[in-house]
Write a structure and sequence with these properties.
104 residues, alpha+beta, 5-stranded mixed β-sheet, 2 helices
């Protein structure tokens, strides 16, 4: 049986985090983001402790970010390597992702 994952969104005027706790597991995981302007947020860093490996907590954080982007109408710039890799594996998330910048 999967353990419950509780995710809380914490923000200030320019930055924020999604903080996740897994039932019965020590510590917390987080996905940090920066508000880049109207309708644009960068996913900067995702981290989960070793105690949470295999719980699905990192994916749950990204899925919450995607859900909030859709509900609140912002686009995500995937700067975090984990978020970028997951966005490439999930083309159905393209509506929540910022268009790729042209190569320099």
């Amino acid at each position: 049986m999967a353990k419950a994952i509780d995710i809380e969104k914490q923000t200030d005027s320019a930055k924020g985090s999604y903080v996740a706790r897994v039932e019965g597991v020590e510590g917390h995981a987080h996905l940090d983001f920066t508000i880049r302007g109207p309708g644009m947020v960068s996913a900067d860093h995702t981290e989960a402790p070793d105690s949470m490996r295999g719980t699905g907590v990192a994916m749950a954080l990204v899925e919450r970010l995607i859900a909030d982007a859709r509900a609140e109408g912002f686009k995500i710039i995937p700067l975090c390597p984990y978020v970028l890799a997951q966005s490439r594996r999930h083309p159905e998330w393209s509506d929540a992702m910022a268009p790729a910048s042209p190569a320099a």
